[in-house]
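Hi everyone, sorry if this is the wrong subforum. Our group has a chain we'd like a structural model of before ordering constructs, and none of us has done structure prediction before. Sequence below.
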Amino acid sequence: MSAKNGTLYAIFATVGTVVTASASTDRMYACRDSSIKFTVDTPDATTKESAAWWEGITGIRDVTIDFSGVWDDAGSATTLTATEIAALIIAGNAAMKFAFVPAALGTTIPGWMGMGFFNGLSITAPYEKPCEFSGSVKGTGAWAVFTA
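Answer:
Right subforum, don't worry. Here is the predicted structure as tokens:
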């Protein structure tokens, strides 16, 4: 088994469309943990002809990315910081291109990309500990395997 190290994966966000390539400079800065979740609603389509077996159909598909990290605004001008994510949400949050891919772009490790919105951002400031942030991205439209 060839286990993958979670440190390899990063979240990238940039303006543009899905067909534009992500650059390493579009990486979310100071992110500690991230996860991507794909779901599909399967509505019940069972009828009397189903012979007492449940039947369903493919319904609405959904993708969500959750992330968290250490608050650090010392990133370069080309990385996405928690402060910038908050500003995007406050300003009205236009759809952006997102990628959940290996941080070393160009590898053969699979990743995923699509359009989405920042769905929230929380900031915690515990006593005598680093400030942290967490949030999520809600996908919109079709997502695909990352190819570039």
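For your construct planning: The beta strands are 9-14, 31-40, 61-70, 96-102, 112-124, 132-145. Residues 9-42+56-145 form one domain.
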